[in-house]
UniProtKB/TrEMBL annotation:
The chain crosses the membrane at residues 470-492. One of its GO terms (molecular function) is ATP binding. The keyword Glycosyltransferase does not apply. One of its GO terms (cellular component) is membrane. Its main location: membrane. It is found in: Membrane. It comes from the Eukaryota. This is Protein kinase domain-containing protein. Keywords: ATP-binding, Leucine-rich repeat, Membrane, Nucleotide-binding, Repeat, Transmembrane, Transmembrane helix. PROSITE patterns: PROTEIN_KINASE_DOM. InterPro entries: Kinase-like_dom_sf, Leu-rich_rpt, Leu-rich_rpt_typical-subtyp, LRR_dom_sf, LRR_R13L4/SHOC2-like, Plant_receptor-like_S/T_kinase, Prot_kinase_dom, Ser-Thr/Tyr_kinase_cat_dom. SMART domains: LRR_TYP. GO terms for biological process: defense response; response to other organism. The lineage of its organism: Eukaryota, Viridiplantae, Streptophyta, Embryophyta, Tracheophyta.
Length: 755
């Protein structure tokens, strides 16, 4: 019996009469012998998919003349596809996806005329997509992406025309690849059996030809992430069997045609980030099979149709970043299966409908950046599955309902920048939230951790006494005199000496936070004990501090022996004064004297990215890593927008550093790793692997745990590394900005999740 791990014993290949070599889904490593088919000449089936094989595909493979199945998917094979593979006249199925193969698609493969499946996904194949594939007339499934295949400019996408000879073709995937050209009208002449057509991320331009409507058996059509223009063709209504229609991230424009509502089997409609405008067709509510409706980041206007409430089985609805107006319809409460509802970035007004309480499967609700008013409904507590709630940047008033404490799964809450008042609840998951969740609501009160004023004790009796007269009328006058004197002294000292400048500036920067003394910091950090040390930077150290009032904070101590530390302290004080962003650590207070400077920051109990990447018992999956990097990018985007032009931060330098961090996050290799010696840098390492074998540099633990779909993972990794390389261009002017980084990573994450 063959072991399920390790290398195969040589004796396995001594069974010359072996017909089927079938060992998929194991952890077998090593390489297949180059003379495999001299040793096992009778082979009809070879299936070693989803293992750890390395090396080249055996060059003797064409000598297994009876071979019908070659399945080598999801390994680490390198090198080229054997040039004589077409000598296998009995060959029917070829699975080579999820490897690190290079070179071109061999011409001889056209001689294997019985091939019905040719699957080459997620490799590093180059050259053009050959027209001779059209000679495989029995072909049923052809998957060519993601690879690095290109197109002959003079021929356009003529290979699609050649594939019209394959009358049994049911699945065709050509993206992502670096193709350029116009989608030919002949696409409508592809097999009447075609059910799956995916050309995502192929740089296709021009309009979607009306002939696309001839593909009447299509179930999936993916044309997203291209340069397509023009309107959605009216002939789209002929695709009566279509279940997934993805045209996102293109330049298509015009109205959403009403005849799209005739596609009654539609389950996924993704038109995100295009140039569509006008109103949302009310007839979309008739598409009761819809599970995902993505219309965000367009220029849609008018109201949210109440008919969308008829989509009782919809799971994901995204109408964010449009120009929708009016109240949210009460019918929204009828979408009882929905788990993600994103309506942010519009101009919705009025009250939040009470019917929203019916959405008991809802996990994520985002209503931020609208003009909603009135109270937060008490009935939000009925949405028992809620994990993320964003109501920020509206005109909501009243109190934060204490009933929200019942939402036991609520991990993210943002009600910032509204007109809320009263006490912040302190039960349930509220103890886990930070001040950023509530900032911009001047009338809120509550616990010190939220950086709001303390609530009045309702049990205290109020009396109009001499004490009250003193507090209300006399004390403010005295305070004004003291402030005026302080400013005068500050100005005088600024002229004569800069020694204590930041002490005074700091008291003005943080008027609502008591300054913390050196002695308090010394006690909180246990005399700067090594046990309290949680981070090292280029200009100082970061300690965990526990203060006398129980507050836990991070204390960033600047190394004043470095000139850069003075500038950094000043820059951080200036920048942090007005920073309002949920992904940036909040400054609580500071300590500054001629010999010591420190910032007291919000403490992050979950540790840092380095611990999660490099600690043996910690693990972040692909989605978590993308999510973290989106948050980092969003914070940098905010800083660049707010402070880049003032010279407080350097956007292009930050972009480069971010690109290196993005590489580190998915390769689990530090820029200082021993691997990078001489002229080999992390950037060069990734760049060279990107064009050959991107999966070979990805964190092995990541792929081992996410091996269900190597095609999608390989595509995801390629796109992420492309973003990282765009960030680290040698010329600062050629680097992408952080807004584009956020957008591209968000789309990659949506695609990876299958939204």
């Amino acid at each position: 019996m063959v072991s399920t791990a390790g290398e195969l014993p040589r004796t396995v290949f001594n069974i010359s009469s072996l017909v089927s070599f079938d060992i998929p889904n194991n952890e077998i490593a090593g390489s297949l012998p180059a003379d495999l088919c001299y040793l096992l000449p009778m082979l009809e089936h070879i299936n070693v998919g989803i293992n750890q094989f390395t090396g080249e595909i055996p060059s003797s493979l064409p000598h297994c003349e009876s071979l019908q199945l070659i399945a080598l998917s999801a390994n680490k094979f390198t090198g080229i596809i054997p040039k004589d593979i077409g000598n296998l006249s009995m060959l029917e199925k070829v699975y080579l996806g999820g490897n690190q193969l290079t070179g071109t698609i061999p011409h001889s493969i056209s001689n294997s005329s019985k091939i019905i499946i040719l699957d080459l996904f997620s490799n590093m194949l180059t050259g053009t997509i050959p027209t001779f594939l059209g000679e495989l007339t029995f072909l049923q499934r052809l998957i060519l992406g993601p690879n690095l295949l290109t197109n002959e400019p003079s021929l356009g996408l003529s290979f699609l025309t050649s594939l019209t000879n394959c009358r049994s073709l049911s699945q065709l995937g050509i993206g992502p690849n670096r193709l350029d050209g116009v989608l030919p009208n002949s696409v409508g002449n592809l097999s009447a059996s075609l059910e799956f057509l995916d050309a995502t991320g192929c740089h296709i331009n021009g309009v979607i030809p009306s002939e696309i409507g001839n593909l009447s058996n299509l179930v999936t059509l993916g044309l997203g992430e291209n340069d397509l223009t023009g309107p959605i063709p009216k002939t789209i209504e002929k695709l009566q069997k279509i279940q997934r229609l993805q045209l996102y991230d293109t330049e298509i424009h015009g109205l959403i045609p009403d005849n799209i509502c005739k596609l009654t089997n539609l389950g996924v409609l993704n038109l995100m980030n295009t140039k569509l405008y006008g109103s949302i067709p009310s007839c979309l509510g008739n598409l009761t099979s819809l599970r995902t409706l993505q219309l965000g980041s367009n220029a849609l206007t008018s109201n949210m149709p109440s008919t969308l409430g008829s989509l009782k089985d919809i799971l994901y609805l995204n109408l964010s970043s449009n120009f929708l107006i009016g109240p949210l319809p009460q019918e929204i409460g009828s979408m009882k299966s929905i788990v993600q509802l994103q309506l942010s970035g519009n101009q919705f007004s009025g009250y939040i409908p009470t019917s929203i309480r019916e959405l008991q499967n809802l996990i994520e609700l985002s209503l931020s950046r609208n003009r909603l008013q009135g109270p937060i409904p008490e009935s939000f507590a009925d949405m028992v599955s809620l994990e993320s709630l964003d109501l920020s940047l509206n005109n909501l008033s009243g109190t934060i309902p204490k009933s929200l404490e019942k939402l036991l799964h609520l991990g993210y809450l943002n009600v910032s920048f509204n007109e809320l008042s009263g006490e912040i609840p302190n039960g349930g998951t509220f103890n886990n939230f930070t001040a950023g969740s509530f900032i911009g609501n001047e009338e809120l009160c509550g616990a010190p951790q939220f950086h709001v004023k303390a609530c009045k004790d309702p049990n205290k009796r109020t009396r109009f006494s001499k004490t009250k007269i003193f507090l209300v009328y006399i004390l403010p006058s005295i305070a004004l005199i003291i402030i005026a004197a302080a400013i005068a002294i500050w100005l005088l000292r600024r002229r004569t000496s800069n020694t204590h400048l930041l002490v005074w500036e700091n008291s003005l920067l943080y008027p609502f936070n008591k300054r913390i003394s050196y002695h308090e910091i010394l006690q909180a950090t246990n005399n700067f004990s090594e046990d309290n040390l949680i981070g090292r930077g280029s200009i100082g150290l970061v300690y965990k501090g526990i203060f006398y009032n129980g507050m836990v904070a991070a204390v960033k101590v600047f190394n004043l022996q470095l000139q850069a530390a003075f500038k950094s302290f000043e820059a951080e004080c200036e920048a942090m004064r007005n920073i309002r962003h949920r992904n940036l650590v909040k400054v609580i207070s500071s300590c500054s004297n001629p010999d010591f400077r420190a910032l007291v920051l919000e403490y992050m109990p979950n540790g840092n990215l380095e611990n999660w990447l490099y600690t043996q018992d910690c693990f972040l999956d692909i989605d978590q890593r993308i999510g973290i990097m989106i948050d980092v990018a969003a914070a940098l985007e905010y800083l660049h927008d707010e402070y880049g032009t003032a010279g407080i931060v350097t956007p292009m330098g930050d972009v480069y550093s971010y690109g290196i961090l993005l590489m580190e996050t998915f390769t689990r290799k530090k820029p200082t790793d021993d691997l990078f010696v001489g002229e080999l840098t992390m950037k060069k390492w990734v760049s060279e692997s990107f064009s050959q074998a991107v999966l070979s540099i990805v964190d092995a633990n990541l792929l081992a745990r996410e091996e269900e779909d190597f095609s999608e993972n390989g595509s995801c990794m390629s796109m992420i590394m492309e973003v990282a390389l765009n960030c680290t261009e040698d010329s600062p002017d050629e680097r992408i900005n952080m807004r584009d980084v956020v957008g591209r990573l968000t789309k990659i994450r949506q695609r990876f999740k299958g939204l």
